[in-house]
Design a protein that fits this description.
By secondary structure, the chain is mainly alpha-helical. 62% of the residues lie in helices and 0% in strands. The chain contains eight helices and no strands. The longest helix is centred in the N-terminal third of the chain and has 24 residues. It is globular.
Length: 167
Amino acid sequence: WDRGSVENFMERRAENGASLSRVLSGEGVPVELIALAGIESGLNPKATSPTGAKGIWQFMKSTARAYGLSVSGRTDQRLDPVLSTLAAARHLKDLFFSYNDWHLALAAYNAGSGKVDRAMSQSGANDFWELARSGKLAKETVRFVPRYIALSIIAQDPERFGFTALG
């Protein structure tokens, strides 16, 4: 992530962050999780990854369907910011209940629960930071959680970090 990516996130958050924050709050998850969509897609609803993940939350088809989103030839609700935020909130809530730790939940959102579970089992680690030091997680996931934390902190007080507060 660079300065331009943060600025793009801040602009998109100013445009539709309030409605997405209401969805997150309504589902009982921290509104700061909007930064997760920032890391995943820069809050770009048309974002598509090389692996086929789509939307601001970068859902794969199977996860999207598991959380009630329609993904078919005609309809792809992963591209709907509000519906996909509702699904993401529910998915994140499930991950939090599995791990009882937001950092591990975020790691599982990025890598998948199976990979986090295996890494925890192999390393004996029971928190994200210990797990990250163990070398059992992919480097992308090890970097993912600190990026999320950094963007969350910047988003709470952008002017402190040299960004313009929008909206």
